[in-house]
Automatic annotation (TrEMBL):
Protein name listed in UniProt: DUF58 domain-containing protein
InterPro entries linked: DUF58 (IPR002881)
Lineage top rank: taxon: Bacteria
PANTHER family referenced in this protein's UniProt entry, alphabetically: BLL2464 PROTEIN
Domain DUF58: 55-257
C-alpha cells in the first residue's frame, strides 16, 4: 500500500469506524472495573474544606469559638468541632504507552497489553472524576478537566489509531505542579527516557506510579528449538535454532529492568507495580487507588 493511499477518505473512514466500534466496549469495561473498587462518592478522608461530614474532634487552644458544634458538645463534658472531608479538586494525569510492543498478546484469550492499559487508565479516570477531581492524558496539550465529557474525550484519544513506534516512553506535554500521575507501559524501551521524565515530574512536585504491564509469555519465555522472534511492527527479526539457550539471559535482563524501575521510583518517591494480562485487573486498580491517596 502506498503512503498516499493511507490518507484516502475511505481508509480514514475505516479507521474511524474501528475506533468508534471500540470506544463503547472500552468504556463499558472501564465502568465495570471502576465499580468494583469504588461505590458512591469518593472522599479524601482529610479534614478541610468540603460539605460531607467526616468526624468530630475535641476543641483545642486557638480554635474559633464559632467553630464549636454546640449540639455535639452538649452530650459530653468537653467541646467538639465538626470536621468535613477534604474534597478540593486535584489533578490526576494518566499516560498510556501505545507503542507497537504494547499490542502484543501471547494468547487470543487474553487482552493485549495495550487494551489492559487502556481499561485500567479509564477506570482510574472514572474513579477520579467521581471524586470531584480533574483528569487528563499526559501526551495531550489540553489541561486536565472533570466531568463525563472529559472521560469521553480521553477514551477517544486513547483509541486513536495513529502509527506507533516499536517501543514507547513517557513524553508528557503537560504536568501541573503538585499533580499525581500514572504511566502504564511495558517499559521495554530506553530506560533513560523514563528516568528523565520521573526527574522532571518530581521537580514539579508531581508524585505517582509506574505500572508495568506484561504478558505472561514475556515472563516465562516458554520457547524451545527453532524459533523466529519478530517485533510487533515487523521491523526486528531474529531466528535461532536453540531458543531455550536464550532463556536464562533473557530472564536476567527482564529482572534487571524491573530492578532499575523499582530503584527509579524509590529515588523519586514514586511507586512501582507489575501487572500481568492473565490476572484480574481489579487488584491493580485497587493498588493504584491506594497508592495515589494523599495521606
Amino acid at each position: 500500500m502506498s503512503e498516499l493511499s493511507l490518507h484516502t477518505p475511505d481508509s480514514l473512514r475505516s479507521r474511524s469506524e474501528v475506533v468508534a466500534a471500540s470506544l463503547p466496549p472500552l468504556m463499558a469495561d472501564a465502568e465495570q472495573l471502576a465499580a468494583t473498587v469504588l461505590l458512591g462518592v469518593h472522599g479524601r478522608k482529610r479534614a478541610g474544606t468540603g460539605d460531607e461530614f467526616w468526624q468530630y474532634r475535641p476543641a483545642e487552644m486557638g480554635d474559633s469559638y464559632r467553630a464549636i458544634d454546640w449540639r455535639r458538645s452538649a452530650r459530653s463534658d468537653g467541646h467538639f468541632l465538626r470536621q468535613t472531608e477534604w474534597q478540593a479538586a486535584q489533578s490526576v494525569m494518566i499516560g498510556v504507552d501505545d507503542a507497537a510492543s504494547m499490542t502484543y498478546s501471547g494468547d487470543r484469550s487474553r487482552p493485549s497489553k495495550l487494551r489492559r492499559a487502556q481499561t485500567l487508565a479509564m477506570a482510574l479516570a472514572i474513579i477520579a472524576v467521581r471524586g470531584g477531581e480533574r483528569v487528563g492524558l499526559t501526551h495531550l496539550a489540553e489541561p486536565p478537566r472533570g466531568g463525563q465529557a472529559q472521560l469521553l474525550r480521553m477514551a477517544d484519544a486513547l483509541m486513536d489509531g495513529a502509527e506507533r513506534p516499536e517501543y514507547g516512553a513517557p513524553k508528557p506535554q503537560i504536568m501541573p505542579a503538585g499533580a499525581r500521575a500514572v504511566f502504564f507501559s511495558d517499559f521495554l524501551g530506553d530506560p533513560s527516557a523514563i528516568e528523565t521524565v520521573l526527574g522532571r515530574a518530581t521537580d514539579r512536585g508531581v508524585s505517582g506510579a509506574l505500572v508495568q504491564i506484561l504478558d505472561p509469555v514475556e515472563e516465562a519465555f516458554p520457547f524451545d528449538g527453532r524459533t523466529l522472534f519478530e517485533s510487533m511492527s515487523g521491523t526486528i527479526r531474529f531466528e535461532t535454532l536453540k531458543a531455550r539457550a536464550l532463556r536464562d539471559e533473557y530472564l536476567e535482563r527482564l529482572a534487571a529492568r524491573k530492578d532499575a524501575l523499582q530503584e527509579m521510583t524509590r529515588r523519586t518517591g514514586w511507586r512501582f507495580h507489575v501487572h500481568h494480562t492473565d490476572a484480574p485487573a481489579e487488584p491493580t486498580l485497587l493498588w493504584l487507588y491506594q497508592a495515589l491517596e494523599r495521606r
